[in-house]
Amino acid sequence: MPEEKPVPRSSRSPAAGIIATTARSVLVTAGVAALANLGRKALTQAPTAMARDWCEGLTREHEATLAAIDKLMATSADHPGSRTMQLNAIKHMIAKHALQEENVIYPMIAREAGDAAGELNKEHGEVKAMLFELTRMDKTDPAFATTLAQLRGALEEHMREEEDVLFPALRERLSDDENRKLTRAMNMAGVMVA
Ligand SMILES: [Fe+2]
Questions:
Q1: Over the range 17-45, which residues count as b (16 or more CB within 10 Å of their CB) and which as e?
Q2: 175 alpha carbon to ligand 1 midpoint, in Å?
């Protein structure tokens, strides 16, 4: 009985060729998407990644968020596409930031300082509602700028309370080791979403 030889590449069926080409193109597309995703991750995580502790990291994210909102406020109604893109980036920054606070920092505030966490979560809910309104709004509508200014005002007041009162008070109550652990836990929460 003659020995079976392997089928040379050139004589594979056309279907096998199509499958191979499709698989290659899927891999290339996945690679491009992964790179874009890495770029977005690096951008969103940059403020926290450079911080020495959770409190500094969140403060830097606050500053980056307000700066991004100021940039969006400076756009004109003649560029609705640019407004949509910038709003999407802001929503992503805020979503990552909110998850870190809601899943890690606020529970710790609730454990250590009681009531304040409930109010902070409520304010986050109001911010999410405003972001939802901005998303569904016509970007050429004059109300877009008004709602955006309301969002900025609400965020700034919320951030002042966190930065000037609640966060320093929590950091003070915790030991160095507990603060280090809290920073690690916050970063883990951020990496998962960004
Ligand atoms: Fe915050």
A1: eeeeeeeeeeeeeeeeeeeeeeeebeebb
A2: 22
Range list of H helices, the chain: 14-49, 54-73, 80-100, 106-113, 116-136, 142-161, 167-173, 176-193
pLDDT in tens, 173-192: 999 999 999 999 999 898 88
Cβ 61 vs Cβ 48: under 8 Å: yes
Ligand 1 centroid, distance to 15 Cα (angstroms): 54
In tens, the pLDDT along 54-108 reads: 999 999 999 999 999 999 999 999 999 999 999 999 999 999 999 999 999 999 9
Report pTM: 0.76
With the C-alpha atoms ordered 73, 65, 88, 30, is the resulting torsion angle positive or negative? positive
- CA 186–ligand 1 middle distance (angstroms): 12
Expressed in angstroms and rounded, the spacing between residue 192 Cα and the centre of ligand 1 is 18
The pLDDT confidence band at residue 45, using thresholds 50, 70 and 90, is: low
Distance 115 CA to ligand 1 centre (A): 17
The domains located in the chain, with CATH, are 13-193 (1.20.120)
Distance 179 CA to ligand 1 centre (A): 17
